[in-house]
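quick q for whoever's on today - can somebody do inverse folding on this one?? i tried earlier but teh output was garbage lol. tokens:
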């Protein structure tokens, strides 16, 4: 409950500050623009307001789109190659293991025990 009260007071004070700033906003007048002929940064401001940055941005966006598409295609080709290699290495999941034939094992044990292959030492 205490956190709710603190949050309520905080939001009310933020709202009051916003209201006071909105009331004071019409009183602030725009500063008159002084001529910046002697200022070397003035040409940068004019350049920023021109259409050149927009053209550079459009060119970079076009290059980025093409580059990312090529990277995507290359990544998909690599993924397909790796998947193909994994399919070759991976044992078949559908192939069943042969069932153990206990009769055959028993016959082999009988033959081995009665075959006279005892070692003499």
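ok took a stab at it. sequence:
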């Amino acid at each position: 409950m205490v956190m709710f009260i603190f949050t309520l007071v905080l939001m009310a004070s933020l709202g009051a500050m916003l209201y006071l700033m909105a009331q004071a906003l019409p009183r602030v007048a725009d500063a008159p623009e002084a001529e910046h002929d002697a200022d070397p940064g003035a040409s940068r401001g004019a350049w920023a307001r021109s259409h050149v940055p927009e053209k550079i941005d459009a060119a970079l966006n076009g290059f980025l789109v093409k580059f990312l598409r090529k990277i995507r295609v290359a990544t998909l080709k690599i993924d397909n190659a790796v998947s193909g290699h994994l399919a070759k290495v991976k044992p078949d999941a559908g192939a069943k293991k042969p069932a153990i034939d206990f009769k055959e094992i028993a016959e082999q044990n009988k033959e081995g025990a009665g075959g006279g292959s005892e070692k003499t030492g």
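fwiw Residues 52-89 form the longest helix (38 residues). also Helices lie at 2-24, 42-49, 52-89, 102-114. so keep that in mind when u check it
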